[in-house]
Amino acid sequence: GHPTKKSRRENAYMDITTRMDNEKRNNEKHWMEMWALTRRELRVLRQELKDEDDEGAIKELEGDMKVMEQKKRHYAELLGYENDAEVSSSTENV
Question: What is this structure's pTM?
């Protein structure tokens, strides 16, 4: 017997739902990796900033840090991290 219209539709629905779940999981995995990367990069930049005394280099590092903090906040929001502690504390000092 041929599958009924209803069961074909249910199978398509299940297929789409499964694919969407997988995509969501893959996105979250990617976002977590990106969040962790930006966090690590911020640590490196902060360390460089501590050891830097050239005014131009300091400005550049601070600019880079601002960009990284925005990226990190973006990924934190995507992941539903309500308050990304590092972000809120570091932006208060700006």
Answer: 0.70
Nearest-angstrom CA–CA distance, 86 and 94: 13
Record the tokens describing residue 83, joined without a space: 């308050």
**pLDDT tens track for 69-88:** 999 999 999 999 876 655 44
How far is C-alpha 39 from the geometric centre of its chain's CA atoms? Answer: 10
* Nearest by Cα to 38 from 82, 3, 90, 2: 90
Give the Cα separation of 6 and 64 in Å (integer). 55
Q: Identify the residue whose tokens are 């550049």.
A: 60
Cα–Cα distance for residue pair 93/31, rounded to 1 Å: 26
Q: Distance from CA of residue 76 to its chain's centroid?
A: 5
Rg of the chain (C-alpha set): 22
